Amino acid sequence: MYEKLIERIEALEEKINNPPPLLMNYSDASNYIGINQFWLKFLIDHNLIKLTFLPGFKKPRIYKKNLDDFVEDLQLNKNQYIDIFLKANKLFIKRYSKFQD
Question: By the 8 A CB rule, do 46 and 26 touch?
Fold first, then answer.
């Protein structure tokens, strides 16, 4: 059941371990890490991951240091990784299931 997720995590490890040194906006961060903006925002909004944004920008921007902090939160063993995504999925289902009949 988790094989596909584990494969994805393994494929992202190299990118996650080597973030670019430039300032990145929210979109670039989500594209680079390989999580779409919806899921990145969802995980942040539900306190499943932490990411510090700089104030005063239309699009939030993050420093490499903050991307590294984000990466550190995600730099977990595979079971913890899976747990984060399962929690996010559970919250997503709980939040949006009322719209489906």
Answer: no
Q: Give the H or E element holding residue 78.
A: helix 78-96
Tokens of 50: 């932490």
Residue with tokens 């899921």: 39
The predicted model gives 55-74 an average pLDDT of: 46
The answer to whether residue 100 is domain-embedded is no
61 in a structural domain: yes
pLDDT at position 23: 37
Q: What is the CATH number of the domain that holds 13?
A: 1.10.1660
- R_g over Cα of the chain: 14
The token pair that represents 75 in the structure block: 């730099």
Structurally, the chain folds into a number of domains equal to 1
Look at residue 82 and tell me whether its pLDDT is greater than 50.
yes
